Every structure is written in C-alpha cells, then in structure tokens.
Amino acid sequence: MENLISLKIPSGWAITYNQFVDEPAEINENGSIENWDAYKESLLQIQRLDLKDGAHYIPETTLLIDLGWTPEATASGAFKLVLVFKNPHNDMAWESISEFNSQDRFEVQAKIEEWLYKLSVRYSRDMTPKQVAKMLTFEI
Q1: What is the separation of C-alpha 136 from the centre of its chain, rounded to a whole number of angstroms?
Q2: What is the pLDDT of residues 80-100, one digit of tens each?
C-alpha cells in the first residue's frame, strides 16, 4: 500500500495490520467516499510486545491499539481510535481503555504517537485498565 502515514513507533510494539494512509477522502455527490479502501473499519492494529529469553513476542494478554473509519466509507464518519486490553480467553473480548475520534488523519497520527510514548514510558503489566486510562490523561 502506498503513502502509509508515518508513525513514530517505540520499541516494544508491533504493527500487526496497517492500511492507514495519507490520502484525503474523495467524496462523491451521494456523500460516499470514493477511495473507500482508505476509509474502512479496519485500518491499523498495533500490539504491545513482551520480552522473554531475549526475544519479543505478542502475549495473549496485551494492550492493543485499533483504528478504523466508522461508518465505513461515509463522509459523515470519523476515524475511531481505541486502546483496549485484549482478553487472553477470547481474542474478540476487548476491554476498552480509551477512545479518540476525529475526521483529521493527522490528529489521529498525533494521538497514536502520544499514546505509544506514554505507554512505553509509564506502562507496567500489573496496571489495571482503569489505571492505564488515568495514566494517559497525564502530561509528560
């Protein structure tokens, strides 16, 4: 995919899916987005890594950043960015920690980088989702 949005990703994170592109929406007369593939519900996933015996891996219980456009391919939609705690017993049972919505891809880019930085500096595995959410509100 061409023109991926540039993201500053600290060590300890893995991009497991990426179609988040630097492409403005092309809106037709019906209010639909012509370049819908850049404005769909599944655009980006970033997962927190753990380190064991000198090797990184994605643990069953981890933080996950998920990005999509909702409603998909509609001009009235917005990017929906969520930070979740992934349940080890059910991959689709996510506990939401924080959410950010915007139609501006550059605001979303900045929020992703802010979350990644704060989580890289302050997160510890013994934190509850509520503690993580509170930690994200503090300035660094």
Answers
A1: 14
A2: 999 999 876 666 678 899 999
